[in-house]
Amino acid sequence: MTRIMGLDFGSRTTGVAVSDPLGITAQGVEIIRRESENKLRRTLARIEALIEEYQVTLIVLGFPKNMNNTIGERAEKSLAFGEMLKRRTGLPVVMWDERLTTVEANRTLMESGVRRERRKEYVDKLAAVYILQGYLDSTGRMEDGQN
What is the dihedral sign for C-alpha 84, 90, 92, 96? Predict the structure, then answer.
């Protein structure tokens, strides 16, 4: 069985989630942190190690469009990162609309009673879970509709 990886790519952190082997649910794996926005070598190396560990065959990368559906600076950086991932891993990369996933992740943590100071420790990983779960749910529904 193969797995799908979900990534929430930010300026200093990348949240990582993977699917279960059946591609039904997403689980948070970790948050990869880096010193500065442009230092991506270690981030890419860690993602490659996780791809090998979990036998990932597809990457779903959060695509932070603006609320009016335009592509801003963050979305441009995500597109460039997606191209880097394709080149380095040889895997297909799906850009997935991630609008409001971080907002939703923060809300979930708040409702779970996680203190504000501690939310930063979890929010990117949870956002990656929401990105991947959104993708998994959409592909599951499409397949159901075709049967």
Answer: negative
